[in-house]
Amino acid sequence: MNRRHLSLVFVVLLAVAWSLLPEFSVTVLSYIGLYALVAAGLVMLTGVGGMTSFGQAAFVGTGAYATAWVCTSPMATAALSPYLAPALLPFAGLLLGIVATFAIAWGLGAITLRLSGHYLPLCTIAWGLSFYFLFGNLEFLGGHTGVTGIPAIEIAGFSLASPRALGIVIWAVLLLALWALHNLLDSREGRAIRALKGGRVMAESMGVDTGRHRVKVFVLAALLAAVSGWLYAHLQRFVNPTPFNLNIGIEYLFMAVVGGAGHLWGAVLGAAVITLLKEQLQDLLPQLLGSSGNFEVIVFGLLMLVVLQRFADGLWPTLARLTGRWLRPVARRSPDRGAILPQGQLPPRGTVVLEADEVSKRFGGLVANAMVSLDVKAGEIHALIGPNGAGKSTFFNMISGVDDPSDGEVRLHGRTMTGKPSRAFAAQGVGRTFQHVRLLGNRSVIENVALGAHLRGSRGWIASMLRLDRAEEAALMAEAGRQLERCGLGPQAEVAAGSLALGQQRVVEIARALAGQPAVLLLDEPAAGLRHLEKQALGRLLDQLRTEGLAILVVEHDMEFVMNLADRVTVLEFGAVIAHGTPAAVQADPRVLDAYLGGGDEPLAADARPTNGQVDRPAPSGRAAIGTAAAPAKGTS
Question: Of the candidates 543, 510, 515, which has an alpha carbon nearest to the alpha carbon of residue 527?
Fold first, then answer.
C-alpha cells in the first residue's frame, strides 16, 4: 500500500461512516471541511508560494456575504426573479462571490504582493481588519447584526438544509479541490509556483513571470476561501462579521502551518487538529478550573507554541515519516522518451549571439564595471576571468537580465535587450547557472531540470488542474531525463536535489539550463566543487556543446580548466577589461601577470600543461594555465 491508496481508504471510510456518525460529529466534520478548504489555499500561498497572509478570513466573508445578499436582499431577488428560480439564487450568490473575490484579490494582490519581508503580512493584517469593519458598517449587509434567513441549497429538488446533507457537498468540494491542486503542483505551472519560494531571480531566469504567478496564487487562495464562505453561509443560514475577523484569519494560517504548510493533506490535518482541540478545551477547561472564561484561548496559544517548536515543518511530514516504513512510495511514471518537444535551430557557427557594448554599472559612487565590451559567438567557448572583486558576477548579471546596465547596451541576436527582465532573455535563448547554486532542494533532480524547460510548454493552470496537460508534461519530463543522461546524472533523477554534493548540484544547474534549449549558455563557476574526473566529464560535455554550435560564456576561477578549454579569454580587473584574446596571448600579457601574480616579471613555464580539467582532445599550443599559484582563491567575484 502507498500513500495514494491510504488516501482512498480514508475517503471510503469517511463515506461509510457518514451516515453512522451522530449529528454533532457530522457538524464538526463539516466545519473541518470548510476550514480545510481555506487552509489548502494557504498551503498554496504560504507553504508553496512563500507568501504569508493573515487576511484570508476576509475572502471567506466576501463569499458568505455575496450569497447572503443575493438570497435575502429584496432588490437582488426582484432583479433576478424573472430569470432565475428561487432554488438557483444560492448559485447566483456563488457566482457573485467568485467574481467579487476575483476582482478584489487581483487588485489587492497587484498592490500588496510587490512588498517583501515583513511588509507583506503586515499589509494583509491591515486589509483583513478593514474588511471586518466594512462588513459590520454596511447597512445593506445587516451591519453588526448580520443577515438572517439565508435559504438552504437545493440540488434537483433535494434540500441540503441539514449538516449531514450539506456536509457531503462540503467534503466533495474539498476533495475535488485537493485533487485539482495536486494536479496543478504536479505540472509545469506547479514547478513555477514552487520556484517562487526558492528564489525569484532563479525563477525569472528560467522564464517564469514571477509577478504574475504570485498574483495568480494569491487569487487562487482567495477563491478557495470564497467557496468556503459560500458553503458556510448556507450551512449556518446566518452570517455576521464575527467569523471573519483577524483572529479567525490567524487561525486559518495556524491550520496550514501546524498541519504542514508545504503539504495539501496537511491542511486537512491542521484543520482537524485545531478544530477538535478548541472544541475539547472549551469543554474541559471549565471543569478543571471551576469557572468559565476565555481560558481556552490562553491554553490554545501555549499549545500552538509547543507544536510549532516541536514540529517546525508541521504534523503531516512527521506523520509521513512515521508511516513511511509501512507505506511504499508512489512510483513515478518513467518519462516517455518518445515524447519530443519542438526543436529550434541554433545560429550558424561564428554568428555573434550575445554582445555587450561598452557596458558600465554603478552602485552609487562605486563603479563595478566600466565600459566593458564582449561578444560570444555560436560554436565557441568564451571565458571571462579575473581576480576576486573584478566585477565578473556584476557583468554576468547584466548580460542575463538580472540587472540593468547604467550605461551601454546588451544585444541578443542583434536585438537590444537593455531594460528587459531576465525572463525575456530566457525567451530569446539564454540559459544560465549561478555562482551560488539555486535549486529546489526538497524536489527531485528531474523536477529541477524540467523547470528549465518552462518556456517550451504552454498549457495553463486550468488544463493542469484537470490533467489536460499530460502529453506536454510527459514531453517536458522526457526532455529533462535526456539532459540528465547527457550530463551523467541519470541515476540521480529521483533523488532530492538538496541531498547531492555541491559539484553534482552544479551539474544539475547545467542540465536545467540545457533543458531550455538555449542558444547561449552562461556558466558561473561551473567547475567549482567538482573533483578531477568530474571536471574532465564537464570539459567533454562543454566541448560537445561547442561542436553542436552552442555559444558558451564561462566565468571560472580554475585557470587550468579554462585555459585548456576556451577559444577566447577576456580578463577583468577592477571592473575594466585589461586583456582579450586567445589563451596563449592572454597568458603572455604583462597586465594579466601583474593582476594575478602581483608583478609582470614573474616567470611562466612556456610549455606548462594543465593537470586538472583536461578534455579528451589535444591542448592547442600555448593553452597552459597561468599557474597553480596564480589561481585566485575561490569566492565571490
Answer: 510
What residue type is 290 in one-letter code?
Answer: G
The owner of cell 484570508 is 56
Burial of 451 (0-12, 13-18, 19+ CB in 10 A): buried
* Other Cβ atoms closer than 10 A to 108: 22
434 and 409 in contact (C-beta within 8 Å)?
no
Provide the 10 A C-beta neighbour count for residue 22: 8
| Most distant pair of Cα atoms in the chain: their distance | 96
The per-residue pLDDT for range 187-233, each reduced to its tens digit, is 999 999 999 986 788 999 999 999 999 999 999 999 999 999 999 99
User: For cell 531525463, what's the residue?
Assistant: 481
Going by C-alpha positions, the residue among 184, 224, 188 that lies closest to residue 207 is 188
Contact between residue 54 and residue 250 where contact means Cβ atoms under 8 Å apart: yes
- Residue 29 scores a pLDDT above 80: yes
Write the burial class of residue 349 (CB in 10 Å: 0-12 exposed, 13-18 middle, 19+ buried).
middle
Report residue 17: phi and psi, to 5°.
-80, -15
What does the DSSP 8-state code read for residue 629? G
- Are 357 and 408 within 8 A, CB to CB? yes
Residue 171 to residue 36: CA distance in whole angstroms: 9
Spatial separation of the C-alpha atoms in residues 241 and 64, rounded to whole Å: 10
According to the model, what pLDDT value does residue 180 have? 96
Residues in the chain: 637
Write the CA distances from 372 to 224, 260, 357, 578, 584, integer angstroms: 51, 49, 7, 10, 21
Integer-rounded Cα Rg, in Å, for the chain is 30
pLDDT single digits (tens) 224-267: 999 999 999 999 999 999 999 998 999 999 899 989 888 999 99
Side chain identity, residue 1: M
φ/ψ of 370, rounded to 5, equals -130, 110
Instruction: Count the neighbouring beta carbons within 10 Å of the beta carbon of residue 246.
Output: 18
**236 membership: H or E segment, kind and range:** helix 210-236
| pLDDT digit string, tens, across residues 553-602 | 999 888 888 888 999 999 988 888 988 999 988 888 888 888 775 554 44
> 3-18 vs 163-185: helix axis angle to the nearest 10?
170
Yes or no: say if 39 and 60 are a contact pair by the CB < 8 Å rule. Answer: no
pLDDT digit string (tens) for 100-109?
Answer: 999 999 999 9
Q: Do residues 50 and 121 make contact, with C-beta atoms less than 8 angstroms apart?
A: no
Q: Are 153 and 92 in contact (CB under 8 A)?
A: no
453-468: burial string, b at 16+ Cβ within 10 Å, e else = bbbbbebebebbbeee
Query: Is 362's pLDDT higher than 60?
Result: yes
Task: Please state, in angstroms and rounded to a whole number, the distance separating the CA atoms of residues 64 and 94.
Answer: 9
What is the pLDDT confidence band of residue 622, given thresholds at 50, 70 and 90?
A: very low
The rounded mean pLDDT for the chain is 86
